[in-house]
Amino acid sequence: MFDAVRNNKRIAQIILALLIVPFAFFGLDSYFTDGPGGNEVATVGGSKISTNEFDQALRDQQDRLRQSMGGQVDRAMLESEAMRRSVVENLVNQRLLAMHAADSSLVVTQQQLQQVIATVPAFQEDGRFSLERYEAAVRAQGMTPAMFEARLGQDLRVQQIALAVGQSAFTAQASVQRFLEAQLEERKVSELKFLPDAFLAQVELPDDAAKKYYDANPERFERPARLRAEYLVFDENALLNQVSVSDDEIRKFYEANTARFGQPEERNARHILIEAAADAPAEEVAKASEKAAALLAQVRANPERFAELAKAESQDPGSAAGGGELGFFGRGAMVKPFEDAVFSLEKGQISDVVRSDFGFHIIQVVDIKPAKARPFEEVRDEIAEELKRQAASRRFAEQAEHFANLVYEQADSLQPAAEALGLEIRQTDWISREEGSIGGFKNEKLLNGLFSDEAVKNGRNVEAVEVSRGTLVSARVRDFEAAQRLPFDEVKASIEKQLRAEEASKLAVTRGEAALAALAKGEQASGAWSEARVVRRGSPELAPAAIDAVFGAAESKLPAYAGVAMPEGGYSVFRIESVTRPELAKDDPRLQAVSQQYQRLIAERDFNAFLASLRERYEVEINEAALRTAQQP
């Protein structure tokens, strides 16, 4: 079984992808120890998942999301209930698998552990296992090799379970072929539409229809609680206008960073390479060196033949065809021995034989672009802006805590914080908790704070909330309106419009169904058919209901007809004029792709079912209150 895990990683990876937190680096040893009483977000078979463990897993998942999205992540999403619930569900799944592995007495030998560790790229150097790199990587995770190997053993035992479930997924080739043939089937159809708008004029509503609908559906006319707020945004931009830099500071920065504000020296060189790897046998190195020396003698004797010899003899496939020319480059672009040689030569000069990790080079400098600096006046504004941002950033770091303390300690007004830090108090229009945003930031924590009793009833500032990296916002309620039912007169017109549309759609459906019945009898239907088009199952140009109707129609007699009430209202009749089915060869590559996708779906379904069975075996309880109050970043 272990060899299967090691040699058939695809299935295990598919299933283990459902488990977000890797076992090996977060450990399973705590899975079988209880934390302090009452301090857990869940229990699995009596084993507790502590709030500390949950907080760590949540932070790790948030960090992974930030890294995968380049740091551009809505903080509201990172702090959302959905995110916290997803993390705790994954912790529960991990605990279930770990407990099952322990109860099943699954074994991983020391030899098997060593085989896996030796194949990890992070533990290798020059393609070979490096004990030094292995120990350093493990220490960086705060573990000893023994601790890591114990946890890795647990991870591998869980993989054995995952693979056993995944390998049970089976797809019959005949089923896959029938499925793909059905997906590729094409039908040529034209459409006859019965749109609601065409029947609006025929709709007559009773005088009391709108009022009856209003009374029967009170929840539809509830306006949620809403408020208007005033707020402060504290970030680097808010401080830019409060800092200034002198001409002397700008000049000093320019003089200290001349290389940055100029074009560094660049050189165009060409070379002849005779390959000899760094770890090549001595005999091979000697042979390459001898050949390079002979070529050097030829180019020294006749420099004009350099390009000719490079085309004929150089073993650099990227430059040989161009006479060995590499184009202009600066320092840092080439390996150091090559770079040192190029930048030590004069224009037109030919080097001695230069050894690098790639082999032996003969180099000639073709041209030199000397370094040149951009004038001070050209970059003055650029430097001034950078220095101001640096100063604003330092001031923000120094005053962020001061801002948070001011809005908290003087909670009856934002004015003291605004005056102390030179900020502008801004105002929102009416906003709700579900759809509101403050200064363009839709932040769950900030909105929850605004709609809390502390802010609404007691009129206190909401504590400073980091709505994005380096941006703090505090707000307070200016006006508040509790949830209320909208007056009938205010919504009467919209209700009547809705009822008319619904009645018109019913008339369109009735007319469409009548047309379909007439066509089925061989009679004609009035209306304009669309131009015929070819569609497949899953075609985006037709609604799913329409696709089901078109491909569900019998094809024994063509043209065939099908009809369906459309999701947007009205009715469509489809005339199927022809049916084309593909003929798939048994070795069609599409069959293999579909089979793999289908097997993956079955494996995921079976794995979820397996987890559900483990939940029945090991009783799972999630502490909803602790989950809601768990520490947030």
Automatic annotation (TrEMBL):
Keywords: Cell inner membrane, Cell membrane, Chaperone, Isomerase, Membrane, Rotamase, Transmembrane, Transmembrane helix
Ranges of residues in domain PpiC: 264-367
Example of a GO MF term: isomerase activity
Subcellular location: Cell inner membrane
Transmembrane segments: 12-32
InterPro entries (alphabetical): PPIase_dom_sf (IPR046357), PPIase_PpiC (IPR000297), PPIase_PpiC_CS (IPR023058), PpiD_chaperone (IPR052029), Trigger_fact/SurA_dom_sf (IPR027304)
Top-level division of the source organism's lineage: Bacteria
Membrane topology classification: Single-pass type II membrane protein
Pfam family, one: SurA_N_3
Family: Belongs to the PpiD chaperone family.
Protein name (database record): Periplasmic chaperone PpiD
Organism: Aromatoleum buckelii
